[in-house]
Amino acid sequence: MGSVTDTANMGSVTDTTNTESGKKVTVIFVLGGPGSGKGTQCTNIVQNFGYTHLSAGDLLRAEIKSGSENGTMIQNMIKEGKIVPAEVTIKLLQKAIQESGNEKFLIDGFPRNEENRASFESIVRLLRIVPEIVLFFDCSEEEMEKRLLNRNQGREDDNIETIRKRFKVYMESSLPVIQYYGNLGKVRRIDAAKPIDVVFEEVKAIFEKVDA
Ligand SMILES: Nc1ncnc2c1ncn2[C@@H]1O[C@H](COP(=O)(O)OP(=O)(O)OP(=O)(O)O)[C@@H](O)[C@H]1O
Ligand SMILES: Nc1ccn([C@@H]2O[C@H](COP(=O)(O)O)[C@@H](O)[C@H]2O)c(=O)n1
Ligand SMILES: [Mg+2]
Question: Do the annotations mark residue 128 as ligand-binding?
Fold first, then answer.
């Protein structure tokens, strides 16, 4: 997305569909419940299909670490399992997109609620970028809870109290976004309860079609 210019103001994103090299920008949203395996499978997709993986959660956690003025607000929201205002998250995504030099993006954990979706769409409408497809990692709460409690990555939100809050936000705010894209025929549902390599076989079949 080399020709997308943003003068630190989301309203001033230049209207362009293609990069300066004339290549098409591909955006794939990666959605699913907490612990469904989005990050794990994105790592596999990057290795096999040349996408840049942008995890909204990872970008927000990096923003906390950077000591930014929004850090405390973001940290408090993550601890409570709440969704950070889209304005903040989209700025981080835009910066990462610009810095990547790539044209193919997996946007993981975004849009997470209606406000995320509507804000993103109002910006990308200018760019005429629409998500190619939405990968939906579908997994039971029981399995996701087990995975999160065993993740051991030192995440402040991987405790049972916050996990329950994240599940509630997922059911109430994130699933409707998946349904929205489902109504547009964009959702590719994946049975994420299976072992990692089996899930990736299903993912691979989808990407082979996208890249065809
Ligand atoms: N198919 C799978 N079977 C068993 N364990 C898995 C599977 N996929 C991922 N895991 C493990 O579950 C944990 C959560 O996976 P991951 O971090 O990829 O989930 P996520 O969807 O990105 O979660 P979050 O939304 O919290 O970031 C990790 O410890 C990972 O190794
Ligand atoms: N669009 C988003 C994505 C994430 N968050 C916050 O980060 C937390 C962790 O997200 P993961 O995808 O890494 O699980 C999430 O619970 C939210 O608090 C957000 O606000 N907006
Ligand atoms: Mg993740």
Answer: no
Tokens 């903040």 label which residue? 88
Q: What is the pLDDT of residues 56-95, one digit of tens each?
A: 999 999 999 999 999 999 999 999 999 999 999 999 999 9
For residue 137, which phi and psi values (nearest 5 degrees)?
-85, 105
pTM higher than 0.95 for the full model? no
The DSSP secondary-structure symbol of 189 reads E
Tell me which DSSP letter residue 174 carries. I
The ligand placed nearest to the CA atom of residue 87 is: 2
Q: How far is the CA of 181 from the centre of ligand 1 (A)?
A: 23
Say which CATH architecture domain 22-210 belongs to. 3-Layer(aba) Sandwich (3.40)
Q: Of ligand 1's atoms, which has the minimum distance to the CA of residue 40?
A: 18
* Identity at 208, one-letter amino acid code: E
| Interface predicted TM-score (ipTM) of this complex, two decimals | 0.99
Closest CA to 82 of 53, 50, 60, 106: 60
Q: Are 12 and 115 in contact (CB under 8 A)?
A: no
